[in-house]
Amino acid sequence: METDPLIAKSPARGLKGNSGKPESGLEQIDEEEKDQTDEVGQVTGNFGIWQFWICLSVSMVKWVDAWHHLAIIFLAPVTEFQCAEGDYITSADQCFVINNGTYETCHKWEFDTSIFKQTIISEFGLVCDKNQLPNVVQSASMLGGLVGSMLFGVAADRYGRKKPLIIGVVGQLVAGVAAAFMPTYELLLLFRFITSVAVGGTMAVSCVLCMEVVGGKWRTIVGTLYHIPFNFGHMTLPVIAYFTRSSWRIFEIAISLPSALLLSYCWLTPESPRWLVATGRGEKALPILDQAVRANEREFPADLRESIRRSPAIVKKKPSIFDLYRTPNLRIRIIAAHVNWIICGLIYYGLAQYMGRIGGNIFINVSLSGIIELPGGIFCMYLMDTFGRKKTMVASKLLIAASMLLITQCSSEDENATERIILAFFGVVGISTAFPTLHLFTGELFPTVLRNVAIGSGVMFSLLGSMVSPFVLSLVTFLLLINRFRHSSKYLDFQEKNICAKSKVQKLRRNSNTSGKMLTIYS
């Protein structure tokens, strides 16, 4: 029987204090569970046709999840607008209008509809003093993913993997479609949050299910390849956005309805036999194992069948995130891991949204960034095996840093943003290598009993980074615009003409004969 490389490389000493003795009984209980669930591996094998179809079908949930995670790029794209309030003047200013010689806040705008006919920005007026509200939608979505991963993680341990997975699929289908019919921004925010709770739950549970049906070296391979459908979702999202650009509501429905296909999990996906055995439900695991034996053309020895049928439930102490800080050795590792997870979450979702604001064709930019992620994620397996985890991680972070710094030095006069797009693609390659490397590296830094907690907490911290990424991106965009306009003679000339025009308006307004009449202004 093959040995799980993650188990073989786990630094189990991390749970031991100065005395060299374990500080809790977690390791012993973990070994008991491993002994029982390894019987499942002896029956099904580490990987075969049975595992292939389960992993393939279950990982498809990541395809739809990618659409929901990145939807804000096309729900709230950068949209040019101008104040269009008043019966007698259209202001050249975006947020203010001149009335009786004074500035007043604008409440009505005209939006550029050359690409997107209707977005949440144009429908709900999310501009000027409300320009951060689209970012709140994205942050609420990331918060929903965080809440969903925790809630569904607890539910998966208590009720199994299959039921929470199906509930999550139903949730993202119903809430996603419902969000498209919300008449107000507040209700849209609520249902986007609910949708993301379900999305976060399906991502967490599907990953656990895939890891539990395979064994040995295949856990490392499947753990990396499992994320590929997310890349396909990233690539295809612009296609959906292009054909539904007439309305954000149609777009929201289009990315939600495919979840109905995932309801086939009710019939196609079995419960995790390892979970059934570990919870004393060995009798229910036998029919599932029989299917695996037939599909993989293996044998099911009578002694193993009887042992699995009689397997007792394992009452174990659940490790918590606080166990990761138990010893100085563990504290250093988990702090370093959490910092890296935050940075990766911030960079990934920041870059994803930046591709929609960088200039050029938004559909091509976003699609190409998804295409570039695919070889990056696969190539990182070769890099990790050749150069090791640490060197691969450091190199990918240096590539990201270099590309981001060089973007700030690019000319702002490049209308097609060619230089910025190319540099951003290098950043995408870096983050697509860093994320799977960090996922595997985190698992190897901690003993088996704490591995799931370490990775789970890491994902939580990456979501925290993704929650602030929209606001960081807005701040950076604002600073770059200031720098661009400050050095733009065209902008200064426009401002000069604008001031002259407003001055003429004020002079003409003082003439009572023109009060309430349409004014034609030439500057």
Automatic annotation (TrEMBL):
It comes from the Eukaryota. Keywords: Membrane, Transmembrane, Transmembrane helix. Residues 1-38 are annotated as: Disordered. It is found in: Membrane. InterPro entries: MFS_dom, MFS_sugar_transport-like, MFS_trans_sf. Residues 28-38 have a biased composition (Acidic residues). The chain crosses the membrane at residues 165-183, 189-211, 330-350, 362-384, 421-441, 453-482. PROSITE patterns: MFS. Gene3D superfamilies: MFS general substrate transporter like domains (1.20.1250.20). It is a multi-pass membrane protein. GO terms for molecular function: transmembrane transporter activity. Residues 79-523 form the Major facilitator superfamily (MFS) profile domain. GO terms for cellular component: membrane. This is Major facilitator superfamily (MFS) profile domain-containing protein. It comes from Bemisia tabaci (Sweetpotato whitefly). The lineage of its organism: Eukaryota, Metazoa, Ecdysozoa, Arthropoda, Hexapoda.
